[in-house]
Amino acid sequence: METIQPYTPKEIMTIMAAREIKNGDIVFSGTGISMLAAMAAKNINAPESVIFFETGAIDSLLEELPFAVADPRIMYWAASNSRLTDSFATMQNKITGDKVIAILGAAQIDKYGNLNTTCIGDYFSPEIRFSGSGGGCDVASFVPRCIAFMQHEKRKFVEKLDYLTSPGQLEGKNSRKKAGLRPGGVSVVVTNMGVMRFDKDTGKMYLDKFYPGITPEKILENTEFNMDISTATRADPPTQTELKILRKDCDPQRLILG
Amino acid sequence: METIQPYTPKEIMTIMAAREIKNGDIVFSGTGISMLAAMAAKNINAPESVIFFETGAIDSLLEELPFAVADPRIMYWAASNSRLTDSFATMQNKITGDKVIAILGAAQIDKYGNLNTTCIGDYFSPEIRFSGSGGGCDVASFVPRCIAFMQHEKRKFVEKLDYLTSPGQLEGKNSRKKAGLRPGGVSVVVTNMGVMRFDKDTGKMYLDKFYPGITPEKILENTEFNMDISTATRADPPTQTELKILRKDCDPQRLILG
Amino acid sequence: MTNSLNKVIPLKQAIEQYVKNGSHISIGGFTINRNPMAAVYEIIRQKINNLHLYAHSNGTGLDELIGAGCVSKLEIAYGGNGKAAPTCIRFAQAIQNNEILFEDYSNYMMSLRFMAGAMGLPFLPTLSGLGTEILTKWGFSRAMRKSDPKIVDEKLIVIDNPFGNWTGASKVVLVPAINPDITIIHVQKADAMGTCSIQGLSFADIEQVKASKQVIVTCEKLVDKEELRQNPDLNQIPFIHVSAVCHVPLGAYPTAVFGHYDYDSRYLRKFAMAAKNPDEFKKYQDKYIYGVKDHKGFLNVVGQKRIDAIKADPRTGYAVNMKRD
Amino acid sequence: MTNSLNKVIPLKQAIEQYVKNGSHISIGGFTINRNPMAAVYEIIRQKINNLHLYAHSNGTGLDELIGAGCVSKLEIAYGGNGKAAPTCIRFAQAIQNNEILFEDYSNYMMSLRFMAGAMGLPFLPTLSGLGTEILTKWGFSRAMRKSDPKIVDEKLIVIDNPFGNWTGASKVVLVPAINPDITIIHVQKADAMGTCSIQGLSFADIEQVKASKQVIVTCEKLVDKEELRQNPDLNQIPFIHVSAVCHVPLGAYPTAVFGHYDYDSRYLRKFAMAAKNPDEFKKYQDKYIYGVKDHKGFLNVVGQKRIDAIKADPRTGYAVNMKRD
Hints:
The complex is a heterotetramer, with two copies of chain A and two copies of chain C.
Chain A: H1 9-20, E1 26-28, H2 33-44, E2 50-52, E3 57-58, E4 80-81, H3 84-92, H4 94-97, E5 100-105, E6 108-109, E7 115-116, E8 119-121, E9 126-129, H5 136-142, E10 145-150, H6 175-178, E11 186-191, E12 194-198, E13 205-210, H7 216-221, E14 233-234, H8 240-250
Parallel strand pairs in A: 1-2, 1-5, 5-10, 10-11, 13-14
Antiparallel strand pairs in A: 3-4, 6-7, 8-9, 11-12, 12-13
Chain C: H1 11-18, E1 24-27, H2 37-45, E2 51-55, H3 60-67, E3 71-76, H4 89-96, E4 101-104, H5 107-119, E5 123-126, H6 133-136, H7 142-147, E6 157-160, E7 171-176, E8 182-190, E9 196-197, H8 205-211, E10 214-222, H9 225-229, E11 244-247, H10 265-275, H11 278-290, H12 295-302, H13 304-309
Parallel strand pairs in C: 1-2, 1-8, 2-3, 3-4, 8-10, 10-11
Antiparallel strand pairs in C: 5-7, 6-7, 8-9
Helix pairs in contact in C: 1-2, 2-3, 3-4, 5-8, 10-11
């Protein structure tokens, strides 16, 4: 029997991601929970962080939650409205790119933090076709820190991706560097069960934090590949302050929190 | 004894250049006499031609003559104010670039229409240093037709340039193509004595027109290299209509005509 | 692509004139924003087929064109359509059912490919995609590429940085230019010569236009030249790039036009629901596309109520407190 | 390069903090327009030397910096200053007298080099310059390049088009990126965070800013954030690129600022006349630069009469019927 949690899985995921965002970071955000994490960080722990969209808007005033990165809601009161070529250049350029932290989703992730957002099954004749890279491959190529949001399921934490859309540590060790990529890619994975990071030397995913009520073993059961859980500790649950700000200031209508 | 001419050398040069501009052309223009030629064409023979500056202004309303391609006078009432990277891309792009006719000046020209706007003497330790390429090299690389405005003097029409800044036909024949350049470069030279063009096969300059009162021989005397004058004919002098429009509508204060 | 003073023609005529079976085409906008939908529906009505479509993230327009069977080849970064369809449904089905040839890129790669085309270059470099299957999985075979002069011989090329380690890059990916036969965009304002002013994000519209051999602009407002000349800084597209101008109010509906109207989330959901089922989708198309004469007829079927519901607030540029479901 | 809410500091302090002996620097504007002259004069007053200057066509600012002996290395496309000096006089003399190391490019090449820097790329391609001496005459020797990690190993590289004959290009020139230590621009409007709005042509300012490790913005008007946020489409530079903001009215004088004031052709001619003669030039500098404390002091010496004479007409953005000689 688990204790009744004063927060939902979506809420703890949002707070865990928000804590990764530092003051002054430029937060590359999609929609849904990633947007909420960016807003939570700005309201809680990183007031001088800046929300940034691949479509070219920087520091928009989000009076309403956007439902897409091309939602007209992101064009209002921005510092600048530009275009795709400018926004990706901002990340490809190390001067600004090194300050970017991205929040990404995926259908599959492997032990090196590579992501698949393209298809399940054969690329040319897939069982399920997804939307494709969008800006995911670009961001994962360019910026030093990416948060991946995932549901923790065996079919999503896989030994081998059906398609490698966005680069993490590729085949581990120095393979990312050998391919010609900068240090970067997914640096932290936030799921409904815990928080995973990557070993600096091997590039392999390890369990850093498990949520209250979740055991490292349960996380392993939901992961197809083997993962080091030896250094994992229990996550500090969301504080009352964090939850209050998240609920009252970031998504009062629970459009995303549900 | 020469007959009294009803026009000045500057006026005939301007009209000769204006006649090269076709309706619908995009006229890449500098300042001074090149600007005046563009304005004359627009007012006389090419009403739908468009004046265009390397600094990024297109179809500006020139209520006053600009003294530089960054003069604020070109920013007024333009179709678009953009930037250097956009303006050169407009010429590098064949779709628009093929409609561009450029007007250039130079310190030296050779028999293949290559231009020097960099220096007299050794490049590293010159007797005279000029401004340098600016956009000249770019335009001469990209667009199919360029008008060169020159004073016809032996030290300007030289056997060998002190520095090759902007490409014409390079060493003639197919050398421009071999270097990787598109067809283009200086296609016509307008001087105070006549109009020169380039042989399609050899790439060599020949005399096309000599002005009333000027002989082909006099032009040769003022040209260091040998030039075919065998097909030259006398230029049709500026008409009364052309002169009237030039004087009344294009430079009523004679800022450039002097 | 002319400098004539008046390029205004009816949309039907513009599509007939510039979009042909087999044309290489791109459309403006991004997912649920500023897609040239009136033009898309007209292409579908004219039953133009075998299109080669270049897309970064053109959502609604892309899925309608694919759903209507107009597209046979697709180069794409992202096929999603906001909340209604995180993956475009007809797009996914066309791939799952092997109905189209397709090739995947990233959004930056596709944007750069248009930019290379706009700059008159054969390629541009990027640091994106090294080590991924975007580089290694080609949707168009080498043989097909060789046989079709309109398709570049190689998908992407990786080279060592020719300037040594300059800027810290050891390798770069070269992405080949795209020069579509025709690009269609929808803008807030254009004049009769074709100068355009886009309000809000321009996505990759500017690059797509400049890369394209012919360009159709549909506009919310057809304005006097004088109105645009008063602020040249806001005119991202000068007339020299434009072939035809069509005045089509609500021409991006059901996608959004900043400052004018929001996306119609209800319509998009209806489209997504219908897209899941072939019979429903046929009914949807018969009612909204084939059953009407033009965009006005389409908007009549949609009804004034929906148009009113999405009207933009002048302060924010979108429909404040609109019910979005 | 921070996201702090207030980056406003005095110009003197900004120059002290960001411009060092030996800095690699670029300045905004073009010939006689929007050069950051207040900053240029402050650099001269602070006797900063050994600068490595990257210029496309920065006329007035360039010639003052060279004339004052601040520059030891120069990469440049064009050294001209409008009617007053078709070739910048101190620039020409410095080269003729072997006083500086210099290397020639074209305007597009220099703009692309900043653009490559802004895009985070090691290089960009162009079709410009094939067959010219811009490619073959290097101002910086191979040995010097090798020994200085801040200078790229090769000036320009020509490669065969790796995509065969795609777009009709057989060869391309690769131009290496520039990432200056510091770029200084002057704009019409900025807010305290550093978001900037440039009115009229932006020349290569945006690329220069984004390519640069540190950026100083001087502005005609320091405005509230709210004023800029009302029209994000007019803000070409978001604050994330900016290190310091200095409020310096008339900060581009004697060059023009569209919508505010024209160039002062009389001052420019006086400067050109003085530049021809070392004694006259020393007198000029003593009076206008070294003899004053700051830009306000400089403007006092210039006198209100000249300031009034160049005031822009609100309709056209320049001084209508101004006597230009």
